[in-house]
Amino acid sequence: MFTTTESPRARTQTRRLIIIVVLLVAAVAVVLVARHTTTPPPPTTTPPGAAPSPTPTAPVDEATALATRHMLTLPPEAALPHELTTATAGPPITVPRPAPIANRVISDGFPATAEGALGWLTDFNETALRGGDPATYARAYGESALPHAPSLQGSGPLALLTSFRNEAGIRPGELTPGLAVTYDVSQGLIKGTADDGRFAVVCTLGQLSFDYQGQTTSMGIGDCQALRRTGTAWRIAPGARAAYAACAWPGSAESVAAGYRPLIRDGAR
Asked: Where does the sequence pass through the membrane (predicted)?
């Protein structure tokens, strides 16, 4: 548990704890990617006396193939602050940033474009991760997921927040004076679209910062989601979970290798 003592020794202990938590969280991100990319399909069995069935060859639909295509896997150290690069993965992506809508955790009103989907996910993640509380993220996810969307329990950001809270000894929903957690998105990528643009897989990369009594530690966290356009809004799509995103320090060589590009916000919030 974080201490509330203001002494230099306490501040040093606090910073060490935050660093340990950050390394733990980075490791969790890599474990999630490893599980996603190495888990074999469940074995099939043949009833007694029946002839072996041929291996199914039904094609995977375009949306599922796009969502589940693996992303670059990086070591945990890639997420920690380090040298930036002047190289880029491409020109900046301009994303909209509309005004919030009353009675909703996440804003709507993003256009029916891949950039609109990325703008929606940017707003979703910055809002849902603010404060570092799994309960806040769960509420935002529940409000934004369509029926039969991937389970909240398999969410990478939720696993990160839960690990942070567990290591720090803070229960979900518990308020801790002097603790601030923010997620500021600065890069993103558009993995692709399907169904005439009504389905999009997009990813954000941002700086997740933990601040406690003036001691701040940050890391780069990526998140990819498969989104479905429904009516005039983007929502987390039913079906397969998007492959877990690469986690890198924004602007680093690793972020460029993963395909992240700078974002330009268009419009007032």
From this structure: 17-34
Residue of 153, 151, 125 whose CA lies nearest to 221: 125
Name, in order, each residue with C-beta under 8 angstroms of 46's C-beta and a sequence gap of 6 or more: 52, 53
Q: What is the spatial distance between Cα 163 and Cα 158, in angstroms, rounded to a whole number? A: 9
Alpha-carbon distance of 248 to 240, in angstroms, equals 24
Q: Locate 27 and state its tokens.
A: 């490791």
Neighbouring C-beta atoms of residue 159, cutoff 10 Å: 18
Question: Are 149 and 99 a contacting pair, CB within 8 Å?
Answer: no
Three-point CA angle 238, 241, 243, nearest 5°: 150
- In three-state secondary structure terms, 37 is helix
Q: Indicate yes or no: pTM above 0.85.
A: no
Give the mean pLDDT per block of 10 residues along the chain (269 residues).
43 53 54 46 40 46 96 93 96 84 72 96 94 92 96 90 80 79 96 97 95 83 96 94 96 98 79
10 and 3 Cβ atoms separated by less than 8 Å: yes
Please report the pLDDT score of residue 253 as a whole number: 98
